[in-house]
What does this fold into?
Amino acid sequence: MRYPFVWPVIPSLVVVMVIAGFYICQYMSPMYIPMIGIVYFLLMSVFVVFLNNAKCIRNQKGLAHLLLGVLLIHAVYFILLYVNSKPYQDGLEKDLNYLYALGLSWVLCSIWVWLCLPKKYLESCKGPSLLELCMTNFLVFIVVMFTVPNYADYTDRTYISEGIAIATAAKMVSAEFYEKEKRFPNDNKEAGLPEANKIVGQSVKAIEILSRGKIKIIYNNKLADNAFIILEAILDDKDKITWQCCESHRLEIKMIPVNCRRQIDDFNSQNNIDRP
It folds into this structure.
């Protein structure tokens, strides 16, 4: 074949752009997908020409080289897309969509590249087969699919815990205010804290003091934009203050720390509120 990269590369380019368009078009201007596709086309062309001219896939090590080469090219493509995505659309969902697009396109394109290798080249291979290639890709894809959701759950729990930790300063200030005034502050200004949107964290959008001894922890789109947890001050007979979670919004209940989750359930049951 005069141009050995045509059959492997052109369909691969189409597949990767279609998958990118399906998963991540919402995060960037659509024109970037084919524009950056030029880089993908050049890298894949060089790679496939190398495969057609070098005898490097005669064993399991060669199979690993094929998979790794296609993966690296896909990684470069999706990293370039990620860099050019809209900065205000940040969050775990976006990261997962990029990862899913990368994994799926890599699986399909690596199998296609293998199928397009010259017959005489395949006949000389003593070790790896198409079945081995498919099984390797399938196993890697399964590992990713099981690992990523668990990592996502862990990340969400960490973000929620971060908000509760940041609210510690607001709890201390509110308690000190109560000791002096025998009432709770009505807002951040009265408590002597910065404006709510000035108290931020990696996942925290604002910490707002509400009236009647409540503190609202507002999260950004790393969890769900404007999701929140409300903490409430509880006074005992000796005016000792304890804080408990009393309400949450747009947060999966299973992601909320166990102690806070129980407090929300108790508050809902006491007030005959159904869990959302």
Notes: The chain has nine helices and four strands.
